[in-house]
Structure formats: structure tokens, C-alpha cells
Amino acid sequence: MQAKRRGVRLAFPLACAISAAAAPAASGSHATQALAALRARLPEDEIIYLVMPDRFSNGDRRNDRGGVSGNRSKTGFDPRDKAFYHGGDIKGVLDKLDYIQGLGATAIWLTPVLRNKAVQSLDGNESAGYHGYWGLDFTDVDPHLGTKADYKAFVDAAHARGMKVYFDLVVNHTADVIKYRECAGTACTYRSRADFPYVRSAASGEAINPGFLGDEAPRLDAQNFARLTRADYAYTPYVPEAEKHAKKPDWLNDPIYYHNRGESTFAGESSQFGDFFGLDDVFTENPRVVQGFIDIYGQWIDDFGLDGFRIDTARHVNPEFWQVFVPAMLVRAKAKGIANFHIFGEVMEFSPAMLARHTRVDGLPGVNDFALQGALVDAIAKDGPTDRIAEVFAADVLYEGGESNAARLATLTGNHDVKRFAHAVREARPDAPSDEVLRRVRLAHAVILFARGVPVLYYGDEQGFTGAGHSDQDSREDMFASQVPSFRAAERLSPVSSVESDHFDTTHPLYRDIAEMVRIRRREEALRRGRQITRLSGDKPGLLAISRISAAGDEVLAVFNTSATAISARISVGPTSVRWTALHGACAPRSVATGSYAVEVPALDFVACKAAGSDSQGK
């Protein structure tokens, strides 16, 4: 049920939201200047807004059914069911650029816009590809979302405003088209390479696992893979006649380019070689596949001038693929004049060491920082120790390039694959008043906006969305008036908007507060590019203090209070940081002693104080 409106002490005045208001789109020479300026920005300068287009805004109702007639099993459209298309599209996102830019976002990440298989069934459960991760045609836009012309109009409009566009790509899998004769209608158990080796040819049946030529050192080159002429080493794959050429480009229709080993258990080798919930797992070791995806996604860069990639299911792909693909994409982008092309991969791991491995071994420039996301849940939603967050920051040295490259990790409080942060709070404290949940959500956002990394804001969080349940689908609510019963009944953090209206309220407390925090971050170089030092943390709820040091030596001290009571403390600071000004909250004008600064932080709140000028030089 919806929460009643409760009084909430606003951290920021309405004027702050007005100061972040969107500028009108540029045109002509102004658009060219805007494009040049945005491409000069480093990845760590960005504030990314993550949008699932189908759930955001319906700009064109004519494409709701994707140009297909019939029931939802044909069209994929059923706005009453959270597992089907709801009607949002690219034009809808374009229509809301003022809203997104008003929040302060400098980049937009859309979940995949590629044409998807509209409806699939796994273990008898039918659902739709509204989310974009069931790719069928990797060269075109999903007709439920619009056309290539719509996408170009969106990208061009964003660029004219000085906003970047990040493309969400998939190489690990395609839509579920390939079937196995041994287990029609049911999920196939994973069959390992040891038990079911690859075979050289139909004639010989000779096992050639793992190095197809039988060499001492296995080779992943074209000559090697030319010897692999059979795809039925584990199961007998086939493509139904009606879908023989369903995928594009056409090479994606050949089962030889898939692992065909059955369902992943997400453990051991199956994590890389198994089908991802029934989806066709691509044989990404094959050089033909590597070049094919370089061609596909390079063309998207060429055609639209994209500014970055978010890579889905990156950890389920062999490292050798990324070691070739990533440099190729950076070269392609540079040839297009995009020098600061930002690439980060989805690695659903909550250990910094496991995340860092994919930057060192795979060569991914960055990853989603799920380690920090998990620590925020533990420390802020669940009243865990602030040491949990500090430990994540301490592990920044593990990433390729060390602490400086950790500045390009994509940080988040939640997204479309995990629970919204508000839901994690509500789970931990079911009886907490709505205003307390809101304060904890705001505090988690403060951490990602003032700490190292590239903040990713998930659509709807700024409107008090809490997530309607425990599955990923429950975190994908509609920003327009929803017809899904569970979405309509879900709690909204104050103020409560009508379920009969959309949720683009620029006066919402969270929208205004996030907009003001973003404004501070964008203004202060130390918060975007500065070196980070953890000043204080503890083994229980309480204070977490971090300093960000700019290249000029300015120090911004951010102190977060995760406890339910106000705390006074003295914090170590740089020895030349003496005179201070307030960025947020109450800040004393001077340090109490060399290297010591006194703060008083309200419950579930934070202060941000800046020491600038000659007093902060020399750190």
C-alpha cells in the first residue's frame, strides 16, 4: 500500500533545484561547441542517469506492440504485467531530457535498444524482452522502442545539450533460438568440457578438448577453429525452421558459434560456457565471433557517435575476448573523434578483489562497483559498521592502474538487476517511518556523489520509488501511470504522487536533494577528479569521513553519519587545511589545531566542508 505523506526535513532549499534547471538544446555552431566540450570531459566528470526506456515515458503509442498484431504472446505488450512491455520508448526519453538534465545528469545510459525476441518461455513461464537483453537483431532498434531515426534524434539532442550517451551492449548471449534435441521443452543440464569434449569433425569424432589442434599450447586462432566443424559435442543443437534467419547479422544463426552445453549453474566453467537462463551462449573464443562483434558495435559508434559502453554480463565472457574487443572499440571511437570513450562492464561480484580481477586479467577499463553498493546496504540500510565502506575504498589499489583508475568505476546504490536501496532499507527496518527511509536513501546517494567513482543514478530513485518486491522485475517500475497492480500498491517515499499520474515531480525532496548534491560535485574538481583519503570509520554505525584532494591542493572533507543520533568529533585533515567554507551542512570556519577539524553531523545526514587557497597548498 502507498505510504501516507509524512513531514520530511528538507536538506536543501527549492532554489537549489532551480539552479540545476535544464538549459535549452543548442543548435548549429552551439551544438558543435557543446559536442566538443562534452568529448573533452573525462569519464570521472560524468553523472550517469540509468533509464529502462520501456518503463520511463511513452512518447509514441503507435509502437507499443512493436508493429505486431495479436495477443501478448505475439506482441509482448501487456502493461498490466511486470514481465511484459509497457509502452515506454526512445521518443519518451527524448521528451524528458529537461527532467533528466534538471537532476544534473551529464550522461544517459539506456538499457539495450537492440531488437529483441519479443516473447520467450523458460520452464513454461512466458515473459517479454522489454529490458533489452534478449538480442535478436544486433544491427537495429527494437520496434517497441522506436527506430534508428528515433535513436539518432535522441543522441543528437542529448549531445546538443552537452550530455553524453552510453550504449548498453551484450556479447555473452543472444535471444533463445537454438534448441537441443535431447531435452525439448525442458532446461538442459550443463555438460562439461571434461565429460563432453569438443570433437574435430563428424567423420573422425576425435576429441580435441581443450586445444582444438591438440598442440601443447591451445591456440584460439582462426586456423585452430577451422578444425571444429561440429556443434553437437555436448547436445544436438538445432534452429527451428521458422527462425533459421531470425538473428542479424546472419552469422549469428549458425550453432557452431555457440557453446551448446546446456544451462549455466553459475559455478565453475559453466559460468562462462553455459546458457544464461536459457539464452544462447555465444562461443566468444572463436575469432569469427570476436571480429563479428567488433564490426557490430564499431558500426554503432560510427553511426551515432556514442560516448561509452556499459557491457552486460561481462564476467561470463572469456578474458581473451575483452583483451581484443576493448582496444578495438577505443581505436574505433578515437577515429570518430571520441578521445574519452568510457567502457565499464557489469561484474556482479561484491568483493573488490573479484571486481579488480576483471580489470587486470580481462582488460576492462572499469566495472560496476557492486562492492561499494553492497557495503552501502550493509552500513546504511542495515546499521552495519562504517568500516565496511572504508574497506572497499582501501582495496582500490587492487584495480589495474591502482587508486587513480578506481575513479572510473561506476558507483551505484542500486539498479535494474538488484533491489532498490529504499527496498533494502525497508527490508532491514520494516517499521521505520517513511522519512527515515528517505534519509537513508539520501545518505547513500551522498556517498556515491562525494566519493571516488562515476555515480550512476537509477531512474525513479529520485521520485521515492522503493521497489515492489524481491525480484529484479520489481525494481523496474513505471515512471508513467502504471497499470501493474503491485507497482500501483508499492510504497512511495514522501510526497506521495497519485498512481493515476506520472512521476516526474521536480519538487520531490529526493529530486531536489540529489540535484543539489550533483551541483556541488560538478562545481568542485576535488569531488570529480580528486585523490581520496579515508579519514575516519568505525566498527559500528557512526561516522565515515573522507577527504578529496584536488590537483591544486584544495581539500573537501565529507563526513557521513550512519547512526540515528547526532555525533560530534574531531577529524584528521591536511596540515595546511586551516580555513573552511561550507558546501553542505554546518562547517566550522577554522581547524581547531593543525591537522584537526571539528564537526557535528546530524543523524542520518552529512556535512561537506572545503579548505581552499593557500591554506591547503602542499598536501
Structure description:
With about 625 residues, the protein is an alpha/beta fold. Among the domains are: about 15-175 and about 285-345 and about 405-410 and about 435-440 and about 455-525, Glycosidases (TIM Barrel, Alpha-Beta Barrel), CATH 3.20.20; about 530-615, Golgi alpha-mannosidase II (Immunoglobulin-like, Sandwich). About 30% of the residues lie in helices and about 15% in strands. The strands form seven sheets. Strands 13-12-7-2-1-15-14 form a seven-stranded parallel beta sheet. The longest helix has 18 residues, at about 285-305.
List keywords for this structure.
619 residues; alpha/beta; TIM Barrel; Immunoglobulin-like; 7-stranded parallel sheet; 5-stranded antiparallel sheet; 19 helices; 22 strands; 16% strand; globular; disordered N terminus
Fold topology:
Blueprint: H1 14-19, H2 29-40, E1 48-51, H3 72-75, H4 90-95, H5 97-102, E2 107-110, E3 114-116, E4 119-122, E5 125-128, E6 135-141, H6 148-160, E7 164-169, E8 173-174, E9 179-180, H7 222-226, E10 237-238, H8 270-273, E11 280-281, H9 287-304, E12 308-311, H10 319-335, E13 342-345, H11 352-360, H12 370-381, H13 387-394, H14 403-406, E14 410-412, H15 421-428, H16 434-450, E15 454-458, H17 485-489, H18 509-523, H19 525-529, E16 531-536, E17 543-549, E18 555-561, E19 567-572, E20 580-584, E21 596-601, E22 606-611
Parallel strand pairs: 1-2, 1-15, 2-7, 7-12, 12-13, 14-15
Antiparallel strand pairs: 3-6, 4-5, 8-11, 9-10, 16-17, 17-18, 18-22, 19-21, 20-22
Helix pairs in contact: 9-10, 12-13, 12-16, 15-16, 16-18
